[in-house]
Amino acid sequence: MKKTVFITGAGQGIGAFLSLEFAKLGYHVFSMDLGDGKYLLQKTSEEGLEDRIYFQSGNAGKEEDVEKSVEVCIRKFSQLDVLINNAGKFVSKPVETLSWEEWSQVLHSNLSSVFLLSKYCVQYLKKTKGSIINIASTRAFQSEPNTEAYSASKGGIVSLTHSLAISLGPEIRVNSISPGWIDVRQYRIGGENSPELSLLDHSQHPSGRVGEPGDVFRTALFLADPENKFITGQNFIVDGGITKRMIYEE
């Protein structure tokens, strides 16, 4: 029986890329997103992957939507092997003007969604000795101004990851990935019209380039592999080395 991966925030960007690449490897992919999934559905059709990718519109930070989506996933594909919590919302505002509603929306979308999906998927992941992969961010460890809600949510994901790993092991492995700058322009509607990245954008990374969705996918694929069952409770930084670079003004 084919393995099944459930991916949130899958309508575009990293989530859409993960959906398409896992499907190409033969996985059944249940993709969930708050939007209409236009980009993902378009690419699914172009790649001839309609029999492997199923899209469900829903809010990953809303319990009734999560419960319903997990039920649909199991009804359609019978089992669940990998959960990738990728749903996310970003708000940049000075803390004195950031509203409670905006703060709550970011926390629910980014962090509460990880709790909810994990809660409702655990019973199925235990049967397959599956894996949970949470998409955090390097912003859990360093910040730009006016990113309090986003940074708090991503820091919470890293902490929730190791907590879940202890609670759910040894049946389920739980890890997180913290991407740095990942260029997702061509993986969303209209992204092809975005300005080109500069030489400085690339050269400031010790790796010599800005990240690509494939960098996140290959890390997720490694963590999804049951052969790597000795790895759990860990956070993997995928940022081209930039968070290790000391930067001084000259």
Explained architecture:
The protein is of the alpha/beta class and 250 residues long. The protein has one domain: NAD(P)-binding Rossmann-like Domain (Rossmann fold). It is 41% helix and 14% strand. The chain has helices at residues 13-24, 38-46, 63-77, 100-128, 148-168, 199-203, 213-224; strands at 4-8, 28-33, 53-57, 82-85, 131-135, 173-179, 235-238. It has a seven-stranded parallel beta sheet with strand order 3-2-1-4-5-6-7, sandwiched between helices. α1 packs parallel to α2, α1 packs across α7 (213-224) and α4 packs parallel to α5. It is globular, with a radius of gyration of 18 Å. Belongs to the short-chain dehydrogenases/reductases (SDR) family. Keywords: Oxidoreductase.
Structure in a nutshell:
With 250 residues, the chain is α/β, with parallel strands linked by helices. Helices cover 41% and strands 14% of the residues.
Number of continuous helical runs: 7
Number of domains: 1
What is the beta-strand fraction? 5-15%
Write down the overall mean pLDDT: 95
Low-confidence blocks of residues? none
Q: Helix coverage percent of residues?
A: 40-55%
Question: Measured on Cα atoms, how large is the radius of gyration?
Answer: 18 Å
Record field, number of beta strands: 7
* Shape, principal axes of CA atoms: globular
| Cross-sheet strand order for the largest sheet | 3-2-1-4-5-6-7
Structural class: alpha/beta
- CATH architecture identity: 3-Layer(aba) Sandwich
Report the span from N to C terminus: 59 Å
Topology as a string of helices (H) and strands (E): EHEHEHEHEHEHHE
CATH fold name, please?
A: Rossmann fold
Instruction: Tell me the name of the CATH homologous superfamily.
Output: NAD(P)-binding Rossmann-like Domain
InterPro entries: NAD(P)-bd_dom_sf, Sc_DH/Rdtase_CS, SDR_fam
Pfam families: adh_short_C2
Keywords: Oxidoreductase
Family: Belongs to the short-chain dehydrogenases/reductases (SDR) family.
